[in-house]
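In this section we walk through a basic example: taking a raw amino acid sequence and producing a predicted 3D structure, encoded as discrete structure tokens. The instruction is simple. Fold the sequence below.
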Amino acid sequence: MRFKTDLQFSPLRFFFFFLSLLFVHFKGTSQSISVGQSILEEAVRRMDIQDSSRLSQSVLIRPLHLPNVTNYDSLMQVLTGLETPKRTTFMNGKGSVRFLPAYFQQQYNSHHAFGWNDGSLFPAKGYQFRASAGIAANFGILSIQLKPELVFAANPAFRGFSPNQPDSSWYHYYTFQNWIDMPERFGEKSFAKLLPGQSSIRFNYKGMSLGVSSENLWWGPGTRNALMMSNNAPGFYHISFNSTRPHKTFLGKFEWQLIAGTLKNSGVLPPDTSRRLNGQPLYQPKKTANRYINAVVIDWQPKWIKGLNLGFARSFYQYSDNIRPNLNGYLPVLSAFFKGNAQDENEFGRDQLLSFFFRWVFPKEKAEIYGEWGRNDHSGNLSDFVQEPEHSRAYLLGLKKIIDLPANRQLELFGEITQLETPGTKLVRALQPWYVHYQVRHGYTHKGQVLGAGIGPGSNSQTIGVNWYGTQLNKSGLSFDRVVRNNDFYYLAFTGRQLYDSHWVDLVLSGTKTWHRKRMLYTAHLSLLRSVNYQWNTDDNVNHFQAGFTLGYLF
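The resulting token sequence is shown next.
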């Protein structure tokens, strides 16, 4: 078993800490609900659907930063019905410190790697766990959140892409693997890793925050997938300038987040790298350099339409050794919108994604509809966008409806579809799958997992489900997912052989139970999976299950 740590902080991060000593006379503390604390996040979103005035901000840019510690305490009291413990204060009340919720999460995959939106957990077969705990401290405008994560994965071998597939299929398999860092299996042994987890050091002042963080991010309205940012991969180190509450203007309210960070490679090679075709090796080694990411998201609540949120996100990534030492090099999100009006991206060696999203909440009906539409590359000019807006596009659509039941119970119906498969424009112009492009051969990933939709490049999914709530934190849920795996690869590798019935489709029936007893939180889930044509092998249908149990404690 390997044990690795990823807790290094650069001098820049400590700079923010020492600078805080100059500003202790200001008041502007904050506390956040981390992405991945599903019980709390789901409860907050239900509250927002029924009465958005109970929250100080939207739920479309996460983690949810509450403006001050009092708001956090009040929210926890509403959700749990318990009195929150007093914080320990120091320096005559100018500073305070408290324990954060502690979690121990276990998960088991029976047949092969499966799962997404689980942060620092890995898509691995067998048993794995994650333990996390920490503290939050506030001193003037300075807030520090330290919540590392210890992850262990048994990671036994499982049957992957078949070595019996013909060379033509392996050629297309490596055409894909050579342009993204997304291992089938994360090494050949069990491993344990200590990660910085949901940690941050921030300065908070008048509804704005500047700091460094390793927290997971989630941008947009999706609940099962997100095109740009989700907790599918572990959190990455980033500098963040963001709002902690909506800022009022004559157009309505605005929230935002601007980040610059580092994406790391997995260091894991694809299987069977010695394969050759016509004497040429199929595997093409990638650079070892890490990647730089610069991204921004803006959420707008127009003052003329109640309950509507409109948003925009844009992300650039490139190898760190290609960054130009100027404004365009470090902040490409400020560059021209259309490619024809910008400098040649080939010169900079960087790739881009963007998305537009909306969410419309109807409190009287206790319902919401939402969607996100994105592109894996920007258009050449306005004419190009008008003629082929679908080029390199992906999208998701979803809805939720809450129904009141007797005795203060509630029923929640939900559904979401996500489409990442490339459109028909690939027949007439160059096009690569989502999260894959020409400049950066590790793709839009961090430590071997995509930053956006966890179903992965070329895939599509549909989800329907129902949740029954007894109290804010007591839930019984049932959902069904249909996931079509990487159709972009399938149409290249198999249709030429007239295998039109070998789509890899996962049919997933999942049950979830969450409940709390005083300060203890419990979550149990079981997913029964039928993989049709597993690994694109005709009539190779596999039964699989994933079971998990999470124990949490609210201090």
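Looking at the output, two observations stand out. The CA atoms of residues 521 and 552 lie 5 Å apart. Residues 8-28 have pLDDT under 50 and may be disordered. In the next section we compare this with other chains.
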